[in-house]
User: Fold these one by one.
Assistant:
Number 1:
Amino acid sequence: MQPSSLAFKDRARAAMADPQLQHSLDLLKHGWQAGRTRAAAALPEFEALRDEGRNIKDHVLGHLDLYLEAFEARVVEAGGHVHWARDAAEARRITLDICRDVGARSVTKSKSMIAEEIGLNEFLEVNGIDRVETDLGEYIIQLANEPPSHIIGPAIHKTIAEISELFQKNHGGERITEPAALVAEARRVMRQRYLDADVGITGANFLVAETGSIVTVTNEGNAELTHGLPRTHIAIASIEKIVPRLLDAFTLLRLLARSATGQDFSAYTTLLTGPKRPDDRDGPENFHVVLVDNGRSAMLGTALQEMLRCIRCGACMNHCPVYLATGGHAYGWVYPGPMGSVLTPGFIGIEKAHLLPNASTFCGKCEEVCPVRIPLPKLMRHWREVQFDQKLTPTTARWGLGLWAAMARRPALYRFATGTAIRLLGLWAGRRGAFARLPLAGGWTGGRDLPAPQGRTFMAQWTRRKNR
Amino acid sequence: MSTSRDVVLGRIRNGLQRTDMEETLAVRRVGHTLASAEPNLVPARGSGDLEERIATFTGMARAVLTDVRRIAAWHELPALVGQYLREHNLPQKLVMAPDEALDRAGWDSQPLLRIRRDTAADADTTGVTLAEAGVAETGTLCLASSDRRPTLLAFFPETSIVVLPAADVVASYEEALERYSARHDAPPRSINFVTGPSRTGDIGQKLELGAHGPRRLLVVLIDEA
C-alpha cells in the first residue's frame, strides 16, 4: 500500500466532517473501549499480568536470535518448513513461490496485519492468484477495495447500509439490510471458497519457541477453516511474535482479548504444531512459516525496541482522542493510532510520516491501557526529536522553539517576558475573560476561545506565598 | 552469499550487541527458560473443588452464549442430543468423532438419528466431538486433534455439540494442557480453545453469531466417569 501519511491534516479534517464515520467511532467508545474497562476491572490479577507480559516480551527481545533458532528447529522436527524474509519484497516472493509450487489458483486468507504491511494482497492479485479474505471485516474492505481502518476491526468505518450495498453489488440478489442476514450471506458465499482453496494463508498472534507452534486467535472461526481445509497452510509472522513457552503465550493471551474487545478470551484460540499427522482425517499436508524482519531488527538496541513488545490488540487506538476523532484512514498507512504513529515512521521513513508522531495530545491514555506497557508518548516524542534534528519541522515552528529554548535557558529573562506578556494580555482582555480572536494564534482561536490570563504568573504567585 | 536467515539473525545480534560473556549467559538463560515448567501468574478465578469449577465453567460459558447441559450418565446423551436438535428445528443427522469413547452412549436408543463417523464435510449440519478438558476460568473448551477427533467437527457444521466429562473441568488453560500431556506422548497437530459459538462484530459493530464457525454450541457435561 502506497503511504499517504503526509496528507494527515486534510484527511483528518474530512473525517471529522463525516457524520457516518463519527457515528462508527462513537460506537467504538461504547463498545471496545468500555469493554476493556469492564474486563480489566473484573480480573484482580490484570495489572500483575501486564507486568508479566511486559517482562516476557522484554526477555524475548533481548534473546530474539536464540529463540528464533529454537523455534525453527522445533518446526522442522514437527515436519514444517521455516522461511526467513529480510524485507517485504522477499516475504511476498516466498509466499508466491509456495503458492506456485503447489499449483495454487485459489487462496483463502485470514486477517493478518503483517500481510497488509508487506503488501501481499495486491502482489498475489497481479500474479494471478485468486485470493479471498475470510475475516468478515477484511472481506468487506476487500469488496470495497479499501485498506483496513483498525487493526482488529478493519471495517469498523463501514455502515450497515454501505455493507448492504457492497454485498448486493458483488453477490447479486435482493438487497439485504439486517446484520444477521448479511452475516449469513457472507457465510454462504465463503463456504465454497473454503472448500475450493488450494492454500490457506494466516498470520500468527504468537510463535512458541518451546514447541514450534503457532497461535491464531479469531472470533469468527475463520482462521480454523483457512488453515484446516486446504492442503497447504502458510503462516506469515514478524520475528517479534515469538514467546519462549506455551505458558508465556497464555499470559499474553489473557491480556490480548481483554485489552482488544473486552472479552475474557476470544472465541477461538488455536495452537498448531506441524502438518497433518499420518492418521489424521483433516489438516494441511504442508505447513510453512514465513518469518519476516522488514525493519524490526533495526529497532533492537534503539529507543524503539520497546515498541516490539506490541501484541497488536488495538487498545491504544480505541482509547486515543485523535484516532477516535479521525478514524484509521487519516493515518495513511497500515497501522493507525498511537502504535501506528510510532511504527509508521520506522517502516516508511520519518520524512514520509513526520506528521503522525505529532498527531497526539500526549494525554497518556495509550500508555495507560497498553497491555505490555509500551511508553507510546515517549516513543512519539522520540520521533519528534528525530524530526527536529532532520529539519523536517516547519521553519516557523523551529524558529519558535529556538526562541523559547533561548528564553527558557535564561530564567530572569523568561520571568520578565512571561510576566509582561501576562499583564499585557490581561489588560487587553479587560473584562471579557477570553479572546475569541488573537493575532498569531489563529490556529488556536479558530476552534475555541483562549482564556485571558488572570492575576500574575505562577512563579510570581509562588514566590509571594513562600515569602508570606 | 549469505542466506536471508544469516542476514536476519546477524542484524538481530548486531542490534543486541552482546559481549562474549553475555552471549554465554544468554545461551544458558534461554536453555533454562525453555526447559522450565515454572508457571506464570494464573488468575485465581477458575480454582476451587470440582463442583466449584463446574459452576464457574458453566457460568462463564453461558455468559458467552454457550448452551451448557449436565447429565448423570452416558446413556442419557443420545436422547439429549435428539431433543436438542428438535428444539432448534434441526435435521436428526450427526457427523460424529470416530472415537470409541462416544460408543458407550448407545446411540441405537435414538433410531431416528442418522450418524456418520468421520470429519465434517459441507453437507453436515451438526458435528459431535469430545473435549480434552473444560477450562473454568473463562468457560473454555480444550479440543485436541487426533485420528479419532478431527478438528473440523467443531468448526465446519453450523451446530457444534461437544461432550465433556465433568471430571475434566480444570481451573486454567495450563491445567488443560497438563491433562493432555499426562494422557498422550506427543503434542497433537492442533489444539483448539473454544469459548462460545463463532461471532463477529464486523457489521455495524453489532454482535452476530455464526460468522464462519458454529452458530450454536452445546456442551454436554457428563458426571459418569
Number 2:
Amino acid sequence: MLDDFLTRAAFAATGLSLATGPLGSFVVWRRMAYFGDATAHAAILGVALALATDLPIGLGTLVVALAMAVTVASLAAKGWAMDTTLGVLAHSALAFGLVAVSFFPTVRTDLSSYLFGDILAVSRTDLALIWGGSLLVLALIAWRWQALLTATLNEDLAHAAGIRPDRERLVLVIALALVVAVALKVVGALLIAAMLIIPAAAARSLARTPEAMALGATAIGMVAGIGGLALSLWQDTPAGPSIIVVAAALFALGSLRPRP
Amino acid sequence: MSLLSASHICVRFGAEEVLHDVSLSLAPGEIVTILGPNGSGKSTLLRALLGILPVAQGSVSRAPGLRLGYIPQRLMIDRTMPMTVRRFLSLPARVSDQAAAEALARTGMAGHEADQMTQLSGGQLQRVLLARALLGKPQVLMLDEPTQGLDQPGEAAFYRLIEEVRRDTGAAVLMVSHDLHVVMAASDRVICLNGHICCEGTPRVVSTAPEYRALFGLGTQGALALYRHEHDHDHADEPHNHHHHHHDHTHA
C-alpha cells in the first residue's frame, strides 16, 4: 500500500496533523505565532548544519530548532519586547540559513524543497519519522494536557495549584522543535507555522471546549492535507502550498459561521 | 496553630524593595484583609505567600499538605480559547458533574455549566472562580481584589458569599483590597500595608447581612479612621470619597 508515492504523501500529511492540531491550538491560545515562525525558519539553518557535519537532516533541524525555541523562550521570560525580537530572530534565522546552504551546491538546486516541502518525495523512512515524531508530540501534550491548559489560562492560577508554568512552557518549546523537524519534509520551513495556526484558527469557530478545538484542528489539518494533495495532482501545483491553500479556504468557510 | 505564615519577608524587584519586613500569620477560619493604596505591595505579598515570587529575606511557611484556593486579580481568557464554565471547573483537577453543579449552586451560578467563560459578566466570573476554588476543599482561600469591576450591590453580595463560605467550610480567608467596604463587611482582622505593615487590628464593626445598610456608613468611618491615623505616608491622591453612605443606584 505504501508503494504509491501519493499514498505515502497522504499518510505523511495525516500523521503530521496529529501533532499540529493540538500544538497549533496552544500556539493560537498563547499567541505564539511568531514564535513558531522563528523556530520553523531556523530549520533551514539546521539543514546547513546537517550538511556541514554529515548528520541526518532531521537531526540537524531538530537541534537548531530546539536551540532557537529555547533562546526565544528564555528571552520572553526575561521580558524582552517579543514582537520585535521575534521578528529579528525569525527573519535572520531564515537569511542565515539561506546563505549557509548556498555553500552546498546540491542543496542549491533543491532549495525549494526545504522551503516549501517535498511531500511527494516522502520515503518509508521519512514516513516512520513523521509518524514517530508526531505521536511523540501528541503523547507529550496529552500527558501534560491539564497542566498546560491551566498554565495557558493564567500562570498565577497554575502556580497556586502547584504547577510550574515555566516547565509547561518548556514542554511546548520541545514539542514545537520536534514538529518543525518532522514537518520540514511535508510543508517546508516557510509553511510550518501556517500548518500550526490555520487549522487551529479554523477550528476555533466550531469549538466550545479546548479539547474540541484541538480535535477539530487535527481533523481540519487532515482534510487540508488530503485536499491539498488532490489539488496538487489535479492542477499540477506544488503540494505543500496547496495544503495550506485548502487549510486557508477551510478557515474562511469556518469564519463565516458565528462563534458558538 | 497557623495555616500560613510569613516571617520578616522582604521582596525586591531589582533594586527596589517592594515589601520590607512583613510578618503575618493566618489561623483557621479567620478572615484577614490586607488593605493599602495602589502600589503598596498587596498583590506582591499575596504572590509571595503563594510562592510565585521569591522572597529576598525571611521565610514563608505553610502547614503541611495545606489546601489552598486562589482567586487571581484578573482572569483574562484569550478569546481564541473556547472554554465552558464546566470545563474550567475541571482545571487542573478533574471533578465530577455533580461536584461541579454543587459548587456552582453554592456560589449562585447554578445551571451556568454550558456558558462560555468569555461571555460572563465580571460578577459571574468571580463566582465561577470562587466555585472552582471551593472544589479543591481549601483550608485557605486567597483572593486578590476580588470585587474589582463589580458595582456596589454586586460587591456586597460577593463579600456576603465569602462570609457564608467561611461559615460553612471553616476555610480561612486572606483577601487583598484597596476598598474600605471589605473591612466593614467581612474581616476579622485588617492589615494595613504600604511596603511594610503600617498597622494591624480588628475592625470595630463586623457586619452581618441584615444590618448591612446601617453598618455601611459606620463601618466606613471606622475603617477610615483606622486607615488614616496610623499611616506614615502620604496617600492624598487616593480617592476615598466614593464610599459615602447614601446609595443612589444611578448605575442600576
Number 3:
Amino acid sequence: MANPMTASNPVPDIAGMKPILSVEGLTTSFLVDGEWKSVVRDVSFDVMPGETVAIVGESGSGKSVTSLSIMRLLAKATSRIEGKISLNGKNLLQLSDRQMRDVRGNDVAMIFQEPMTSLNPIFTIGRQISEALTCHSSLSPVEARAETIRLLEKVRIPNASSRFDEYPHQFSGGMRQRVMIAMALASRPKLLIADEPTTALDVTIQGQILDLIKVLQEEEGMAVLFITHDMGVVAEVADRTIVMYRGEAVESGSTDDVFHRGQHPYTRALLSAVPRLGSMMDQHWPLRFPIVDIKTGQSSIPTEVADTVDKRKTPILEVKNLTTRFDIRSGLFGRKSGAIHAVENISFDLAQGETLSLVGESGCGKSTTGRSITRLVQPTSGEVVLDGYNVLTLDPTALRNMRKSIQMIFQDPFASLNPRMSVGATISEPFIVHKLGTHKQAQDKAVDLLERVGLSADMLRRYPHEFSGGQRQRIAIARALSLDPKVIVADESVSALDVSIKAQVVNLLLDLQENFNLAFLFISHDMAVVERVSHRVAVMYLGEIVEIGPRAAVFDSPQHAYTKTLMAAVPVPDPARRSMKRNVAVNELKSPVRPVGYVPPVRDYKEVSKGHFVQI
Amino acid sequence: MYTYIGKRLLLAIPTLIIISIFAFSLQKLLPGDPILAMAGEERDPQVLEFLRDKYRLNDPIIYQYFYWVGGVLRGDLGISLRTNQPVLTLIAQKLPVTIQLAVMAMAFALAIGVPIGILAAVKKNTMVDYIANIVALSGLSVPNFWMGIMLILLVSVKLGLLPASGYEPFFSNPLRSLQTMLMPAFVIGLALAATLMRHTRSSMLTVLSADYIRTARAKGVSERAVILEHSFRNALLPIITLTALLFGELLAGAVLTEQIFTIPGFGKLIVDAVFNRDYAVVQGVVLCTGAGFILMNLVADVLYILLNPRMRAAL
C-alpha cells in the first residue's frame, strides 16, 4: 500500500469481563396490513467493553432494525420488540419511556448513515451538540459551550470554536459525520452504535472517519457496534462479526474466522461476491464474479470475458478537450460571480467493445462528463465525435438520432423508472419514439430484451414497484438496449445495489458486452468494481483526468499522487488489516468552484508505459 | 437581505403593471355603460356627452389608461362615479375594517388549525387523528353563510352574548369593535383553520420522519422538545407561506360574511361598485388588493428566509 499504516493495540483483553451489551433472543416484528411480521428473529450476541462487533448483511437483513431495537427508536404503534436486551445489567425492554430517554445519548449513543440529513438544518451545530449535554445533566450554557468546543476538537474539526455557531449546511458530509460523532460522544457513552456511518461518504473521507472512530474508541474505551454492508469495512474495524441474512444471525465469530472459515453458505456467497481491490493482478481481461449458490454454498468458477476490443478500427467515441462549466450567478441583477469547472479540458477515446471507467470522488466531474457526451448538459467547449456524429454541433433532430447510438443507465433504479409506466411500455418506448418499427415489433423486442437481461416475458405488464432494486436495474438496462446503442454510459449503475446483486448485474453487463460488442463508459467511485470490469481506467480529480491507462497499468503501478491516495483509502476485505490506521490528515474534498477570470493551468501528460498517461 | 427585498420589489413592478392593465380593461369587458347608470332616467344626449367628456371616456382607450395610471402614481385613484368621493378616501375607509377582520380571522385560524394539525400528526392513525380530520373536513365543507346565520341565531338571538351585526372602528371603542368582529372572524377563521390543519399535519408528518428527528431522539431529547422545537420549527416553513397567501386572499374581502354581519369592508365596497358600474372604484380596489397580495407574498418569502439558515446564507 502506498500510505504508511501503523498497527496499534489490537483486540482488547476481554477475559473475565462482563458484556456491556447483551442481546438474547431478540425478535422484532412490524405491523404490516394488520399482521405482525417478524423482521428480526431470535438474534443473540454480546458486546464486551472496548470491543468492536460488526453486524454485516445486505438490505432487508434486519441489521439496522436490530440496532434501532436496541435503542428502542422504532415507532411504538407499529413495532414489537421481544427478547432481552441488557445494557450494563439494565434490561432496556423493561424501562419506561422516560428511563429509556436517559439511557439514549447517555449510556448508548448512535450515529447514522446519512450525515447530510441527520442534523437539524435550522439549529447551529453547537446548539445541537450542547443539547446532547444539557438534556442529561445540569450543565450551564457556558459550561456546555466549552465542553462542545472540546468535543469538536476531539473529533478533529479544524477551528472548532469558530464553527460553533455555524449551521449544518456549512459543513461537508465528512465534517457533518464528525459533528454526529461529537454529539454521540457528548456524555461519554459505554457503547456507540454506528449504523453504516461511512456508507454515504467518499472513500478518502471514509478512511478518515474509520480512523477517527478507532482512535476515539481507544481514547474513551467504549465498545462499538458497527452496522454495515461493506465487508471491507468489517475487516478493517471489527473484532467479532455477526452475519445477518433475512432477519437471522446466520454466522458469528471472530472476524478472522468468519472471513476464512465461514460455515454458512450465505457467508461464503457474500464474501465471494465482494470485489477485492488487487484481486485482478494476473488477469488480462475483465472477469466475471463467481456466484455462490446460497443454499448449497457451491461456487461457480468465474469466467473471463473474451477479448471484445478491436483496436484496429477507429474509436466509436472520441473526446477532445471537453470542458463543461456551470456559471454561478448572484446579486441584484444575477451577475456571474464564478463558475463550477465541472469538466476541464479532458480527452479520451473509447473503442467498440471496450470498457473505459471514469473513477473519482464526488465533485470530480465524472457524471458531468457522461452527461456532456450525451449532451444532457451543454458543454462549454471541446469536441465529441460519437459514431460519426459531431455531438456538440448537432441540431435538435440530429441530436435525437445521435441518441440511438448512446444510451445511459443511471444509479438509482427506484427513481429512474416511471412508476406509472408498465415494464413493457418502459422498454419499448425508445423504440417507438424513434419510429424504428411497429408496436408489434417493439413488443417483440421488449420480450427479447427482458429475457436477455435475465427476466421473463410475463413481467411485461407489471409495474416497477413490483420489482426489487436489482430487477429494476435489469429493466433499466433492457430499456437502454432497446435502441441497439453502440455506447452505454453506465453512471454509478451498480453502486446502489447489494453486493450479491451487484455481482450479478456486473456479470450481466459483461455478458451483454460480449454478445452485442458494446462499448461502456463505466462511471463509478468503487475502485474494486472498476478493477473487475474495465479495459482502461481514467482517474478524475477536480474536473481533470489525472491518470489514464490500461487497467492493469493503473492499478498495479499508480503514478499520480491522487490515484495512490484513492487506492490506499479503499477498504480491503482482509481481516489482517484490522486495527490498521491510515494516519491521513483531516482534509476535505476540494471544490471545483472558480472565480470569474480564472485561467485553468495548462496540463501536460507523461506516458509512463504504453497507453498509460499521467498528468504532471 | 436588503438586496433580496430590493430585487423582489423591482420584480413587483411588472406584476403591478399587469394587474393595472387587467383592472383597467375590466371596464371595457364588463357589459353596461357607467354614464347611463349615472344619468339615470334622464337620457339627455347633451348631458351624456358632457359626462363622457368630463370622465374622458371619448379619448382613445390607451390615453384613458395612461390618465388613470398617471393619477395612480400621484396618489389619485380617481373619483367614484357614484358618490363623487375620491376612490382613495373610500378605500381608506374600508381598508382598516378589512384588515381588522383579516387579522382576527387569521388569529382564529392559526390558533385552531396549527395545534390540531400538530396533534393529528403526532397521533397519526389514532382516534385523535381521525376526529381532527373529520372536523377539518366539516370545517371546509360547511358554507360560511350557514355557519354565520347559525352563530347569529345561537349567540346573539338566543344567548344575547354578542351583537348580531354592525361595525365599530377599533380606535373609537376597542372592546365593542372586537365584540362585533368576533363572530365574523370566527366564521372565516374556522374555514381557514381546516386548510391550515391539513397542511400542518402533512408538513409535520414529513418532518417527523426525517433523519434529524431520529438523531434528536437518539440523543435522549424529551418528546416535547422533539415535537415543538426540532419538528415544529422545521414544519413551520410551508405553513408560513400558506398563511401569507390566505391572508392575501382575505384582503380582497369576504363578501358573504360581510353581508351577513353587515360589515362595511372591501367585499361590500367592490360588490356595490360592480353593480353600479363604478369603474374607478373597481379599478382602485382591484389594484389595491393586488398590491396587498404581492406584499403578503414578499412578507412570506422574507419570513421563510429568516427562519431558514440555509436560505439566509444564500443571500
Number 4:
Amino acid sequence: MKAAVILFPGSNREGDVASALKHVTGVTPSIVWHADTDLPAGTDLVVLPGGFSYGDYLRCGAIAARAAIMDAVRAHAARGGLVLGICNGFQILCESGLLPGVLVRNARLRFVCREALLKVERTDTPFTRRYAKGAIVRYPVAHGEGNYTADTETLKRLEGEGRVAFRYVMADGKRDDTQVLNGAANSIAGIVSEKLNVLGLMPHPENHVDPLLGPTDGRALFESIAGVLERA
Amino acid sequence: MKARVLVTLKSAVLDPQGKAIEGALRSLGVPGISSVRQGKVFDVEFDGSDPAKAEATLKDACEKLLANTVIETYRIEFVG
C-alpha cells in the first residue's frame, strides 16, 4: 500500500502517523509538501496529520485547506481514494469541504490533553473494520478546537446516514454528554464521508500503536486500512 | 481605496470566547452589558477605485477564505 502524508507548515504529527503506518504495514509513507500539485503515482491513502498548520491563523485548518496539494487530495477522494484526517487534519477536511461541519473552540475554552474513551460506531468503513462492533477504545486527544458543530439539518443527516464513526463515551459506554472534553455536538469525535472513504477524527489513533508506548487501541485502524488496500 | 470586512458568528452558534469576555467584564464591574460576541475585522486596501468591482472581489474573498459560512456571516464596509 502506498500512503502519502501531507506536510503543511506547522504540522507536527506527520512523524507519529508515518511511524504508525510503518509499524503496521512495514512500508514507510512518503511525505508530500503542501505546495506540490500532485500526489505520488499510485497513492492509495492520503493522511492529513495533526499539528497547527499556519499557526491556526484565521481559523484552524482554514489556510491549509486552500493549499495547492488540496486539489489533488480532493480529486483522490472523488476517485474513491482513502483520506484520513487526524486532529488538525480533521479541521482541514472540514474547511476544505471534504467533510461537513466545522470544529470550533472547546466549550470550556481549555486545551485538552488526555486520553479519551471512544465508541466505534461503525465497523463497516475502510478505517474501522478490524474493530469489534460497538468496541470502546482509548485514543489520546490533544486539542483546543475540537468542538464539532454543524447546523441542525447536517447533524440530522449525519446521524440518519450513520456517518458518525467515533463518539466520546463514558466508562459505561454511554454517550458522554457532560461537555467536559470539548462540547462537540452529539459527542461526535469523528465522521466519515458519504462514500465512507474519507475519515476525520480529533483523537490520535497513531499514538496508540506501539506496545512500547502503552495501549495499542489505534492499531486496528491502520490494520483496517492496510487490509482493505491489500484486497483491492 | 479601503474596505473593512467584519466577520461574526451566526447568532445560533455558541461563542465560548464571547461568554468568557462577558464574564470578565462583569467581574470588572463594567455595568449594563448583557451580552458579548467576539468577531474578526479585516482592513483591506485596494489598488483600483471601482467600488462595485472591489465589493465583488471582497465577496469572493469572504466566500473563499475570510469567513466559514457554516458558522459565520460577513459584512463589507467601505471606509473611504
